[in-house]
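Table S5 (text form). Sequence records supplied for joint modeling of the two-component complex.
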Amino acid sequence: MSAAREMLCDTARAVFAEAATAGIAPVEEAGFALLLVPEGDGGFGGDWGDVNAVLQIAGVAVPDLPVAALIAGEALQPAAIVSLMAGAMGKALALSIEHVNTRQQFGRPLGKFQAVQQSLAVIACEVRAVEAAAAALAARLDAVELDAAAADFEIAAAKLRANRAVGVVTAIAHQVHGAIGFTAEYELNRVTIPLMRWRGEHGNDAYWAAKLGRQVAGFGGRGLWEALTAR
Amino acid sequence: MQGFALYPFDPPGDVAALRAELRAWLAVNQPQGDIVARANCWASFDADFSRALGAAGYVGMTLPKQYGGGDRHPLERYVVIEELLAAGAPVGAHWIADRQTGPLILRYGSEDQRQRYLPGIAKGELYACIGLSEPGAGSDLAAVRTTARETAEGWRINGQKIWTTGAHFSHIMLALVRTEEGSERNAGLSQLLIDLDTPGITIRPIIDMAGNHDFNEVFFDDVLVPHGTLVGMRGQGWQQVTAELGLERSGPERYLSSQALLAALIDAAGAEPDPAVAVLIGELTAEMWTLRQLSMSTAAKLAAGEDPMVEASVVKELGNAFEQDMPRRVQAIVDCPWGDPGDLGRLLRALLIASPSFSLRGGTREVIRGIIARGLGLR
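The corresponding structure-token record, covering 610 residues in total, follows.
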């Protein structure tokens, strides 16, 4: 990651931590609304790679605040949600790893049981897939200068892939946590409930699958490969 | 694993031109045979095609020119490979030699071994197989018992390999054997490069459930091979094999085996697909697009000299699940009788039958998930 983006992420972590109790005001005051505004117009001059990084942090720290709407317009909201989802899934995985390495049953940490290891490997794959989808979507959006129409294929594919990961990630994260993960107090629900919500927002699975499927049908069998490799 | 970035896939030169060049070459040279051979095509044997591909410079691409290679960048090879697989080209004959045996000989082999084998590999004429599994050593590879004892004349090999893909048409086997008497587990193992016409080697077919002869049993009965067959360091076989598996697990073949079926499904659906079929096409496309990003990122990391063992395992796990799931999901949605003579029906049947092997070859799903769990710090 570039030094500028790392600084941006550090700022985002600090500001979102404050916003977690204070609400959206610190995010507005820190100027996140100007993230995508060109430097010549007094903005930060960031790209979607920056937005992806910032929203992954927001997805964990302030999933209920309208940070995505502050940064990007309506047409880019599905893309923004993919980044929020990637961040939240990463957190669900991290919490799960920490829990199974700490919690002991039958005289050893849960993470030493093969059944638990295999389950966590499954979520790790899903999380990595969604992170990759978010990053590839960011690369496409930056290549087409944030023209959502020109990135329609990638937006559909990434949101659909992220949606499809939600069921697996939330189910396994809760399963390996046991009862503690089902409490209001423990922090897992602060990412899993938003994940359940985001799956249905800005297009559920059926919406994007039908849209993408019709687009690909228009390409034809060989045309799909040609389209994939031309973008 | 970190969440914000993909490793940049940035081959040198003009990638679009390379794709166009290869597609034009395939248009002329790809055999217009049975559509079923286009599925799982890295298991389709065609010696003439391999030779032609080698002559055109698309085999051994990354090997140095002095050994007959193309001196190309690994990511240029990646582009060529994904084009060949997406087209369903029959690359099975030279596949293993090109993908891993050639690079391994270049990395660990002696000068004599390089000169002897690499030019044939780059021509697409010299085929290799991998001698890893044994009857008592499948997922537990460290249980290998085939021995090679050093004598004045050379190495004397006794034992048995099994599930050896392509042994019946290969010229050489890169075998993992126990060279140190009394050694256990992953210590005391070495790699030997064995000419398969050496006396004392017996190769017997194992017919798979699709009726194909793909893998074999290979018996070594007091087989004598020269000292010069040792590859790399004596006793370092385990480390060398582990490095080789990185090459084996993350390539585009881990998600493109069922590509011919997806193309046939799309063509059969037409421009105005039934809503349920459109949804299926959309879901499969989203998965394939995502897998391609992961695979390219992993290839780029590998090309940069890093060891993406965990990432490679993620590609294999997700890719296998995808290509294995695809025929099942197509069957669940599309009304297609078992004996259907059309392209879609025949591809579907062939892939339903072939697909159990996808999460077995190259490391079982359970082993791969274990590697990922280790990467997460659980083991």
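Note: Residues 15-126 of chain B form a domain with the Butyryl-Coa Dehydrogenase, subunit A; domain 1 fold (CATH 1.10.540.10).
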